[in-house]
TrEMBL record, chains A, B:
UniProt keyword annotation of Glycoprotein present: no
UniProt keyword annotation of Transcription regulation present: yes
Compartments (UniProt record): Cytoplasm
Known partners and oligomeric status: Homodimer.
Primary subcellular site in the record, as a coarse category: cytoplasm
Entries under PROSITE patterns matching the protein: CNMP_BINDING_3, HTH_CRP_2
HTH crp-type domain residues: 167-240
Protein name listed in UniProt: CRP-like protein Clp
Organism of derivation: Lysobacter yananisis
Length: 253, 253
DNA sequence: CGTTTGGTTGACGAGTATCAAATGGGGTGG
DNA sequence: CCACCCCATTTGATACTCGTCAACCAAACG
């Protein structure tokens, strides 16, 4: 399995999008590392409470849950790559994010009894069921952790709203590549050589572009020697120049 | 409805963005009404805990707080109209939302010790300081309430990401008008006759449009007899036709 | 094999951004 | 009270990005 590795320490971050910010207050006992902290925390706490670790395995294109279904559990991504998506009643779809190891699925529906979005696996993966109700009651730190995750998601979304609203196609693509690279690097992967798990259409949907525009943008960047594209494998060749593209500034409105 | 299958009837698109949603689970004691519930709850609980109610008055264009400042408090909007905005280091600004009575300012930075966005008053208003730390410790229901508000904000943001990514200019404007109308109505205002508190530029910024495009869109809608525009006063003349505009469907990507 | 799915590229047009100018209202100071 | 200016808004002309439609290719799959 591609994603299985132990997680090293927090490393560098790309721009606005990584969560460089961490409250030192609160959660004294639990946290110190980045994303995957929740995983090891669960591994430690669940046995202590006498709760079994429920694993759920999924294959590519399989739905973890769908919007409207009764919310039975929260899922922690342990391996694999997922997307969460909103679908309006007139069929418009919007991918709200790509989720990987350490991310929680279902957080956005915490206050409801039905899921608020679809969660779909993009390749085979494993989920850990998080017994939210029990943990909330028996472990006060957990509640704060959840709160922090929610706030982080809001800031992430706001940053994307800023990017999508002010940047051109190429800049959006580059921003995405940097974001993905930073997240992968935080999980111990290369950070230079990216293996996309989503189609051009899904990428375009997330960036509010058409699949053609994404393909063209990648081709342009490759033609300029900034990246190398081979299907879903992308190599960042010239980070400086790519950053320059972003700094070139978008519309200010 | 986009997200909330718990809500009964379709009333048209206005409801998509309003917070019609309320989990019946949890918060048993506290909630029943709409937004202003938190206000009356505070009014009841603060005296009970021996905490004074700190009011803060602000004038138009005055900053409540700025991104990066130490996070001293959460603010509940009691009166007035506010915007929250993100500013990237290269100067691009993005208004992340307009906040009115019952909304909380600063929620998105709960896990940090510095604010994550700017909050600016658009007219004179009054804020209530929320002693978050005390309430969290002494009142378990409060924590859940906060969690719910965070999750709701995420869904709101996602819905706007969907709208901005898939709708044309006129549809975005109509969506905004419906959303505003629904929120005002929930506060006991007309719902037909809207008094905008923001400039065309701010509206455009929020909708990822230029101020000219917003002006033109409003003019078009007025020319078709769907709305009446007089500066910042807007009257919804033909809700059905406006809904039709939305249903006409946007790009599907 | 044929079929399906994902990706690339081209030609063209629609929808907005951009630049520019004119209008109007509200406030301030004379 | 008026003149003036500043700001917000409206409207027009033009440019340009990106969406749309289409053809083609490659790989995967039944």
């Amino acid at each position: 399995m591609l994603l299985d590795r132990t997680v090293p320490a927090e490393t560098g971050h790309a721009a606005d999008f990584a969560d460089a910010e961490f409250a030192d207050a609160g959660c004294a006992a639990a946290s110190q590392a980045g994303d995957a902290a929740l995983e090891s925390w669960l591994q430690r706490e669940l046995p202590r409470l006498g709760l079994p670790l429920q694993r759920r395995r999924v294959r590519a294109k399989q739905h973890v849950f769908r919007a409207g279904q009764p919310r039975t559990a929260l899922y922690l991504v342990h391996a694999g790559f997922f997307k969460t998506a909103l679908v309006s009643e007139d069929g418009r779809e919007k991918i709200t994010g790509f989720r990987m190891r350490g991310d929680l699925l279902g957080l956005d529906a915490l206050d409801m009894n039905a899921y608020a979005c679809d969660a779909v696996a993009l390749d085979t993966g494993e989920l850990w069921e998080v017994p939210f109700a029990r943990l909330r009651n028996e472990c006060p730190q957990f509640q704060e952790r959840i709160t922090a995750l929610l706030a982080q998601e809001i800031r992430r979304d706001w940053n994307w709203m800023l990017a999508l609203g002010t940047l051109g196609a190429d800049q959006r693509v580059v921003t995405f590549l940097f974001d993905l690279a930073a997240r992968l690097q935080a999980l111990g992967f290369s950070g230079e050589c990216l293996q996309l798990r989503m189609t051009r259409a899904e990428l375009g949907n997330f960036l509010s572009l058409t699949l053609e525009t994404v393909a063209r943008s990648l081709s342009r960047l490759q033609a300029r020697g900034l990246i190398e594209v081979a299907g879903r494998e992308i190599v960042l060749r010239d980070r400086a120049a790519l950053s320059g593209l972003l700094a070139a500034g978008g519309r200010v409105h």
